[in-house]
Design brief:
The protein is of the alpha+beta class. It contains 16 helices and 19 strands. Strand 14 and strand 15 (290-291) form a beta hairpin.
């Protein structure tokens, strides 16, 4: 059952009016509103507003509410002038899956001048999305792959699968399949933007940790992949999906973590994003001759900006324990078709149409035709520590920049391409940053390239945050330890960030 209010009412989401929402509230016994929004820490925030009267309800829907920006954006907003407004975004309205009497909204931040607050990540992303659309008549759409581990008690594990064998496993070898089903369906009902869910490679028999909340537990890796949407909506969807995953896991007595690495020798957790360039509702990523020059141009921009994008997509020390060779994670800046070790992968599409069913159903007399083009290009470096809105803003900015000199970025793409299977040809390519501090250095050195798109205070905050980890020193310390000591120290670092973002 859909939880999207516009669908309940048979209204196109972008056309929903306050009167429609007021009518729905009155007819469906809604007793409170819950406003959601993202702070700098990347976690979803809540403001619960009980409804006392029709007049009060309309006022809150119109005016929003006041919040403390210095708490939500620590280090960026001074306490001496910290008030911000949160105003509900009507098309996002959904019935809460965790509170049957609440109508929930994603909100946007507005400042004292009645303008969208420019340093807030969601507004920054929206502004860049609109700039690309208005200046170039293109939209950037994205869909994320949300990977995570579910950690449970070993006494509930009856069918234990070997390590690294979980990809698309079914129950009972995927022991939390029923929990995954609930997560997938709940997220889909709220957003309408879930493609599928499945178990992933990672199977951890027993976690050794100094952290008592995870010590002795076993872990199973899962993924929920979304459907394409404009980048502001794609970012909100990923944030809501993480909220659903954590809450459903909690209700089942499990712990969900998006940490990029929780155990050496087991699969890390990424947060890949597939990208499409849209014009007039049509995907421009592929032509009849293959990947379009426009897509190649955009890939060139992502290769060019890749070291700085790590500052938004790989934000904690354990991010760089994941980005190692032979773990289907990128370490160097190149792109390729199908290759899961590449920074940017062009996955299999449907270049000859989507009427595949007759190939396996020879008696089928029906045929399927669609103008929809499913081709994407996928950036594979980000992980669960990513500042999602800032990451997609950085990606949008990189792509927007390519329109200033398309030939330059086509050349960059050409010089950074590796044919599938040519793994030995990658040694000459530039490496991605190896620590948070290196990512901060790249961003600091390239901050002029973000000028005019990213407020200075946002760049300053990200750089300070990355530098605060001091993980260059940590990497040097690890080199001085014995192998056994290294294992203990690496686990301590990994598990310090079990609830990051």
């Amino acid at each position: 059952m859909t939880r999207i209010i516009a669908q309940h009412m048979g209204i196109v989401p972008g056309k929903i009016q306050r009167s429609d929402i007021m009518h729905f509230i009155g007819e469906n016994g809604i007793r409170r509103l819950t406003f959601h929004y993202a702070g700098l820490d990347g976690k979803l925030k809540d403001l619960i507003i009980p409804l006392h009267s029709r007049e009060y309800t309309e006022r809150v829907l119109s005016a929003g509410e006041r919040v403390d920006g210095s708490s939500l954006f620590k280090g960026m907003v001074p306490a001496t002038g910290s008030d911000l407004y949160v105003v509900p975004y009507y098309p996002s309205a959904f019935l809460s899956p965790f509170d049957s009497e609440s109508l929930d909204f994603m909100c946007r931040f507005v400042d004292r001048d009645y303008s969208r607050t420019p340093f807030c990540p969601d507004n920054l992303l929206q502004t860049l999305y609109e700039k690309l659309k208005n200046e170039q008549n293109y939209e950037l759409w994205a869909h994320g792959e949300l990977e995570f581990y579910l950690l449970g008690d070993r006494d509930s594990l009856h069918y234990e699968a070997p390590p690294q064998s979980g990809y698309h496993a079914s129950a009972p070898f995927s022991p939390f399949q029923d929990v995954l089903q609930e997560m997938v369906q709940t997220t889909s009902d709220m957003t309408g933007l879930v493609k599928y869910g499945h178990s992933e490679v990672g199977m951890i028999s027993r976690i050794e940790s100094a952290d008592p909340q995870i010590h002795g537990k076993f872990g199973v890796q899962y993924e929920i992949e979304m459907l394409p949407a404009p980048v502001p909506q794609a970012a909100d969807t990923m944030l809501l999906a993480k909220w659903v995953v954590r809450n459903v896991a909690y209700r089942h007595g499990l712990l969900a973590t998006f940490a990029p690495k929780i155990s050496d020798g087991n699969a890390g957790t990424g947060m890949h994003f597939h990208l499409e360039i849209i014009r007039d509702g049509v995907n421009q990523t592929r032509t009849d001759k293959g990947l379009s020059d426009l897509a190649r141009q955009c890939i060139g921009g992502l290769c060019d900006y890749a070291p700085t994008l790590s500052a938004f997509g790989n934000t904690i020390p354990s991010s760089y324990f994941r980005l190692v060779p032979h773990q289907e994670a990128p370490t160097q800046i190149y792109w390729s078709d199908l290759n899961r070790s590449a920074l940017i992968r062009v996955p299999l599409g449907w270049p000859d149409g989507e009427d595949m069913a007759p190939l396996v159903n020879p008696r089928l007399q029906e045929h399927y035709q669609t103008k929809y083009i499913r081709q994407t290009f996928e950036i594979r470096s980000p992980d669960g520590s990513a500042f999602i809105h800032l990451l997609l803003a950085g990606i949008t900015h990189a792509i927007l920049t390519t329109f200033s000199d398309p030939e330059k970025y086509l050349h960059i793409a050409e010089s950074h391409y590796v044919k599938p299977g040519d793994a030995g040809e990658t040694d000459s390519f530039e490496s991605l940053p190896g620590t948070c501090e290196e990512a901060a250095e790249y961003l600091q050195a390239s901050r002029d390239r973000y000028s005019g798109s990213f407020p200075e205070e946002v760049l300053d905050w990200v750089i300070r945050y990355l530098q605060s980890h001091e993980d260059g020193r940590i990497q040097e310390e690890l080199k001085q330890l014995s192998p056994g000591e290294q294992v203990i120290r690496r686990l301590e670092i990994m598990h310090r960030y079990i609830h990051i973002q």
